[in-house]
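Summary of Year 1 activities. Much of the first year was spent building the evaluation harness for sequence design. The harness presents a backbone, in tokenized form, and records the residue chosen at every position. We chose the following record to illustrate the format because it has been used consistently in internal testing since the harness was completed.
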């Protein structure tokens, strides 16, 4: 078993396509296919199901890929430690991020970090809070910007508070409440809602806010794509909860109304409790805290 074979199978699993994987690792498709076939022969199992259009992992392939990712991650961390001793900071930083981080200035944060450490390659995975925390627990991410989960949901992960993000209501422009500046949640008990998906922590926070106001929201649509949600709301499908920074400068034709009962998103930086951060991850962790301190 060779290191490059592990890199090849991980990339094919990621791309779900031999041609794209070969391009990414800079080898010919025939070389990549031969090396993976050689590895499968050595292991005595098939890692991939292949047909003319798609490539998918077998059950044993999924288990193998999980372990291969951990092994390659440990190797990357070892390389970073050596680079640190040599006075250089190089390597790959894999982080997760929820979609709405405007209050933090996420794009500016990442760009400034890269300017200070141009030897570091950044890999950013965008998903909902629960999916990112699962990836973090599986050691495929080094840290993640997420919404604080429920108490005791992830005992092996530590969370550092960064900022709070206030939520407001987005309404169709012709809505009966569109002219108000602030409303009570009880006033929208009979409305249709366009909601976050259940993979998003805010789904449950918004659901809980409605429950405290005495009603269960009638959710007619769920989507993790804010522009789609805002278009549906503008067209009159329903109303929805959004962070202020996400919609205050939107081009969609909507009305924005504040909520009398505070609804906030607690944005945190999540890292695993076990083990030691790689030199690159440790540098980024400290950089984030300095960045947040400069904002507050």
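For this record, the design step produced the sequence shown next.
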């Amino acid at each position: 078993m060779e290191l490059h074979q592990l890199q090849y199978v991980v990339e094919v699993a990621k791309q779900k396509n031999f041609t794209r994987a070969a391009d990414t690792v800079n080898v010919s498709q025939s070389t990549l296919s031969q090396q993976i076939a050689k590895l499968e022969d050595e292991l005595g199992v098939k890692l991939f199901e292949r047909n003319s259009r798609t490539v998918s992992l077998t059950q044993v392939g999924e288990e193998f890929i999980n372990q291969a990712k951990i092994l390659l991650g440990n190797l990357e961390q070892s390389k970073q430690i050596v680079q640190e001793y040599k006075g250089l900071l190089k390597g790959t930083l894999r982080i997760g991020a929820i979609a709405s981080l405007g209050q933090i200035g996420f794009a500016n944060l990442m760009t400034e970090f890269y300017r200070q450490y141009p030897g570091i390659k950044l890999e950013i995975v965008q998903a909902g809070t629960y999916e990112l925390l699962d990836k973090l627990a599986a050691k495929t991410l080094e840290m993640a910007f997420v919404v604080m989960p429920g108490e005791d949901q992830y005992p092996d992960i530590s969370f550092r508070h960064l900022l709070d993000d206030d939520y407001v209501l987005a309404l169709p422009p012709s809505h009966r409440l569109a002219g108000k500046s602030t409303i009570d949640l009880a006033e929208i008990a009979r409305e249709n809602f366009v909601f976050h998906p259940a993979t998003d922590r805010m789904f449950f926070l918004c659901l809980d806010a409605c429950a405290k106001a005495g009603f269960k929201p009638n959710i007619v649509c769920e989507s993790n794509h804010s522009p789609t949600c805002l278009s549906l709301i503008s067209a009159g499908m329903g109303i929805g909860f959004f962070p202020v920074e996400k919609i205050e400068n939107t081009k969609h034709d909507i009305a924005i109304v504040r909520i009398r009962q505070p609804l906030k998103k607690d944005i945190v930086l999540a890292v695993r409790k076990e083990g030691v951060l790689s030199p690159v991850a440790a540098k980024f962790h400290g950089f984030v805290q300095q960045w947040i301190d400069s904002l507050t």
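The domain at 165-264 is CATH 3.40.190.10 (D-Maltodextrin-Binding Protein; domain 2). Quantitative recovery figures across the full test set are reported in Table 2.
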